[in-house]
């Protein structure tokens, strides 16, 4: 049993080797809403670890706000909050207006039109990677499909993909020295306090966004960047909001699906009975994708801020305090998922909260992530006679992203 005094959910070092599930089990079973201290300059947060409580927090945005204090653990002053605010850091009605700018581009129907293109990209990515016999699964496969499709819906050159990947890694991997130009909890990042993720790389992303906007102004198209450009022209977005929106889509459209695919492949390798069952019956792919999403939970947590004093599980949460919902714990809640540490590609029902439980902040890219994950495994698994790990799986140093950096494999083809 975990000792409460040893639990430190905020330290990114505690996620490098593995997810500390025993900590989440202890909290979920005995302290489902618990005050968690943090080192200065932060002031601590309420850790919410049960499924039902996460749903309550996310569905009640008037009490648990995304806008009052952002969605990350970092505590921002009013000026920082205003300058760095993205769509994630807003509540209705502002959130609704911002979401509408691009929501039609990510609807099930709109995304579905790209299935043939996604499948073609997946085949080309797999042709190149599998021909090598031995390679890094993350680098050669998992990160390639999402970024290639992102370039397509952004209508930017495919040769820009490596740069976009690097920028995304540096920003969302801001706690990992392998990725970050400046590691936020190890170096002085005060000069970057007004940039997303306190990352100087954001300036490069903003410059790229400006160049793409100028192209759209000269030659209008019907892509995602054009939708943002029109919104700025109509003053729905100011320049800062345009930059932050672009950066959000660039990162969210690539990083989370990439880690989902990596975790999905690792789970199948670690559960060969499930791999064999899926290869023998590919009609199980849809349910397998949902289990992969639950298992992977690529975003570990999201934060809200209490707008009033409120009671939860007998705890008194005060106005202004951070309330952090741990999706990685809720997706292992025994009261919702029987035998939650069993990877089961036929699990039904499977109401995971990987995309959120619903409500205004339900993931804009959920349809896209499901489609990309489904297509990748539909195309990959029939080609494999076998796949095995040839070295250690290396995880991202992050208390926010459940990321895999490297996963060396060897394959034999049918």
Cα gyration radius (Å):
21 Å
**C-alpha geometry:** globular
The class by helix and strand makeup works out as alpha+beta
The number of helices is 17
**What series of H and E elements makes up the topology?**
HEEHEHHHHEHHHHHHHHHEEEEHHEEEE
Considering the protein shown, what is the CATH homologous superfamily? Cytochrome P450
The CATH class turns out to be Mainly Alpha
Q: Quote the CATH topology.
A: Cytochrome p450
Give the distance, in angstroms, between the N- and C-terminal Cα atoms: 45 Å
Q: Overall mean pLDDT score?
A: 95
Please, could you describe this protein's structure?
With 414 residues, the protein is of the alpha+beta class. It has one domain (4-413): Cytochrome P450 (Cytochrome p450, Orthogonal Bundle), CATH 1.10.630.10. Helices cover 44% and strands 11% of the residues. A five-stranded mixed beta sheet has the order 1-2-8-5-3. A hairpin with an 8-residue loop joins strand 1 and strand 2. The longest helix has 18 residues, at 201-218.
Provide the fold topology.
Blueprint: H1 21-30, E1 33-36, E2 45-48, H2 51-59, E3 64-65, H3 78-84, H4 94-102, H5 108-112, H6 115-130, E4 134-136, H7 137-142, H8 144-154, H9 161-172, H10 201-218, H11 224-233, H12 239-252, H13 255-270, H14 272-280, H15 285-296, E5 301-306, E6 310-312, E7 315-317, E8 322-326, H16 327-330, H17 366-380, E9 384-389, E10 394-395, E11 404-406, E12 408-413
Parallel strand pairs: 2-8
Antiparallel strand pairs: 1-2, 3-5, 4-12, 5-8, 6-7, 9-12, 10-11
Helix pairs in contact: 6-8, 6-17, 8-9, 9-10, 10-11, 10-12, 11-12, 13-15, 13-17, 15-17
């Amino acid at each position: 049993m975990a000792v409460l005094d040893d639990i430190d959910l905020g330290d990114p070092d505690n996620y490098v080797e593995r997810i500390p599930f025993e900590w989440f089990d202890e909290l979920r079973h005995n302290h489902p809403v618990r005050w968690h201290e943090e080192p200065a300059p932060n002031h601590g947060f309420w850790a919410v670890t049960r499924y039902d409580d996460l749903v309550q927090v996310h569905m009640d945005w008037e009490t648990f706000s995304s806008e009052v204090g952002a969605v990350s653990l970092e505590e921002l002053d009013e000026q920082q909050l205003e300058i760095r605010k993205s769509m994630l850091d807003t509540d209705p009605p502002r959130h609704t207006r911002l979401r509408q700018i691009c929501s039609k581009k990510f609807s099930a129907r709109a995304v579905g039109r790209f299935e043939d293109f996604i499948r073609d990209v997946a085949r080309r990515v797999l042709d190149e990677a599998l021909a090598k016999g031995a390679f890094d699964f993350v680098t050669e496969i998992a990160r390639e499909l999402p970024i290639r499709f992102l370039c397509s819906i952004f209508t930017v050159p495919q040769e820009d993909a490596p740069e976009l990947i690097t920028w995304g890694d540096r920003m969302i991997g801001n706690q990992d020295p392998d990725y970050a130009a400046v590691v936020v909890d190890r170096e002085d990042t005060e000069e970057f306090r007004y940039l997303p993720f306190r990352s100087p790389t954001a300036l490069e992303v903003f410059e790229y966004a400006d160049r793409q906007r100028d192209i759209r102004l000269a030659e209008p198209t019907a892509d995602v960047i054009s939708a943002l450009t029109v919104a700025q022209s109509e003053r729905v977005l100011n320049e800062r909001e345009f930059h932050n929106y672009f950066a959000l889509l660039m990162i969210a459209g690539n990083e989370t699906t990439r880690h989902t695919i990596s975790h999905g492949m690792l789970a199948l390798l670690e559960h060969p009975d499930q791999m064999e069952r899926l290869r023998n019956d590919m009609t199980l792919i849809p349910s397998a994708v949902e289990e992969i999403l639950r298992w992977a939970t690529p975003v570990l947590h999201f934060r809200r801020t209490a707008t009033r004093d409120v009671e939860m599980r007998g705890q008194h949460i005060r106005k202004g305090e951070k309330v952090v919902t741990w999706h990685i714990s809720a997706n292992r809640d025994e009261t919702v998922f029987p035998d939650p540490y069993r990877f089961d590609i036929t699990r039904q029902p499977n109401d995971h909260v990987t995309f959120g439980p619903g409500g205004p902040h339900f993931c804009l890219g959920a349809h896209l992530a499901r489609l990309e994950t489904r297509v990748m495994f539909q195309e990959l698994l029939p080609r494999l006679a076998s796949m095995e790990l040839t070295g250690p799986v290396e995880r991202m140093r992050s208390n926010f992203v459940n990321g895999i950096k490297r996963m060396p494999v060897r394959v034999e083809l049918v």
